[in-house]
Amino acid sequence: MDKTVKSSADKSAILEEIYRVIIERKKLKPEDSYVAKKMSEGIDRILKKVGEEAGEVIIAAKNGNPEEIGWEMADLIFHMWLVLGYFDLSPDIIYDNLISRRK
Q1: Tens of pLDDT along 28-63?
Q2: Nearest-angstrom CA–CA distance, 52 and 97
Q3: Where do the DSSP E strands lie in the chain?
Q4: Which pTM was predicted?
């Protein structure tokens, strides 16, 4: 992934790229892939990780450190994307729900 993201459109595209990689690694199951490992462990292990990451977001927010909050939020979002990938659900399900709430 290119680390020279500049515009907000480029920044939002990272979520699509992450999802694409998750689906690819789920399918190909590379031996050294964290995603493939988590997928093979099953949904309960993935959801446990989501819960752990949510707790870390809470602690980071209580600490009030912006860098820590950003790091932990990124971990949480990544693991939520694993849930989508596990069920072969497109991120569109989230985007559509967010859009409908905005109206």
Answers
A1: 999 999 999 999 999 999 999 999 999 999 999 999
A2: 25
A3: none
A4: 0.88
Q: Which CATH architecture has domain 8-102?
A: Orthogonal Bundle (1.10)
Sequence ranges of the domains in the chain? 8-102
Could you tell me the two tokens for 88? 């072969």
Burial 59-97 (b: 16+ CB within 10 A, else e): ebeeeeeeeebeebbebbebbbbbebbbeeeebeeeeee
The single-letter code of the amino acid at 43 is I
Q: Could you tell me the CA-to-CA distances from 32 to 10, 48, 80, 81 in Å, in that order? A: 28, 21, 21, 19
The C-alpha atoms of residue 41 and residue 71 are separated, in whole angstroms, by: 24
pLDDT digits (tens, 9 = 90+) for 83-95: 999 999 999 999 9
Whole-angstrom CA distances from 41 to 23, 79, 83 are 15, 14, 12
What DSSP line would sit under 40-56, residue for residue?
HH-HHHHHHHHHHHHHH
